[in-house]
Design brief:
By secondary structure, the protein is mostly helical. It has one domain. It has helices at residues 4-30, 38-71, 81-105, 107-117, 143-147, 152-168, 179-184, 188-194, 212-217, 243-258, 264-272, 286-295.
Length: 296
């Protein structure tokens, strides 16, 4: 179910997205930067339509039924309306950071999230390259918010607003924001780092709106002039123009790895350990690669 405010936001934001994306395409072509390709842009649209469809389909079952049930058992209530919205924004942004961290450090969830990172282009349309299956479990991270008195419809509204901000971060045209801004908020520069496949940039800058979580929890990395960002993932997708493969390629890789060893313990590790983990050292996690780099 969509609230009246969400419907109004969608009517405003869809034309806004269209205007800014078309503007970036025109500037990109005019300046011969070639930031967009037709195939990648079409894939981004295809993926976000699937994500939006699944999100709307599951919203009544999960966001409404489950979160409303949890909200009915809330043990706290915030009376001050200004404090209510401020804390909701802060705590929801933290919840999204935690979700994002798990998505990068557990292969099961990375298999869902990797779709968003798989493009070797970085432009405003990349922001729509959504993790298609994420609506199935995303609501779990919002359950604690309902128990401390935040209404599900308010949670969904703030999520919609912060998602809009997150989409607009996917640009190469804004090089740097003011220093005070980048000390608190995620900037396009921070998010370019997040989409980098360079070893120094892997699993960094996972905040949605606030960069303070990355600085607090040790996942921050500034964009370096001497280290241009290489967009995409460390292992290219086979047959990247297959629309099914764009979404499910990592699940295929997991299936192959699960059949490498018959031990249940090893299979569970292939499923839930960080991406790149292997029982025989044939592939490495980001942490292992960084350790090897330091030794070398």
């Amino acid at each position: 179910m969509l609230s009246t405010l969400e419907i109004w936001l969608s009517r405003v934001l869809i034309p806004l997205y269209a205007i800014v994306i078309v503007t970036e395409i025109l500037f990109s072509n005019w300046q011969h930067k070639n930031l967009y390709s037709f195939k990648e842009t079409v894939k981004n649209v295809y993926v976000t339509l699937l994500n939006a469809g699944l999100d709307i389909l599951l919203r009544s079952a999960f966001y409404i039924m489950v979160l409303l049930w949890c909200y009915s058992h809330a043990f706290y209530s915030i009376e001050n309306v200004y404090l209510y919205w401020f804390l909701l924004f802060i705590l929801e942004d933290l919840a999204i950071y935690i979700e994002h961290y798990v998505d990068h450090h557990s292969r099961f969830f990375w298999a869902v999230h990797v779709t968003h990172h798989s493009s070797e282009e970085f432009n405003l349309s990349t922001g729509f390259r959504s993790s298609v299956l994420q609506p199935i479990y995303r609501f779990i991270y919002f359950i604690p918010l309902t128990f401390i008195g935040f209404h599900p419809s308010d949670i969904v509204l703030i999520y919609s607003i912060t998602q809009t901000y997150g989409i607009l971060l996917h640009t190469q045209y804004i090089r740097r924001m003011p220093q005070w801004f980048e000390a608190i908020f995620v900037s396009p520069s921070h998010h370019r780092v997040h989409h980098g496949s360079n070893l120094i940039y892997l699993d960094k800058n996972m905040g949605m709106c606030l960069i303070i979580w990355d600085k607090l929890f040790g996942t921050f990395q500034a964009e370096l002039e001497e280290e241009p960002v290489k967009y995409g993932i460390t292992k290219p997708i086979e047959n990247p123009n297959n629309p099914i493969n764009v979404i499910f390629h990592e699940w295929k890789e997991i299936w192959v790895d699960l059949n490498k060893n018959s031990s249940l313990n090893t299979r569970l590790k292939y499923l839930f350990k960080p991406p790149g983990w292997s029982h025989d050292g044939s592939s490495k996690t980001t942490k292992e690669m960084r350790t090897e780099q330091k030794k070398g």
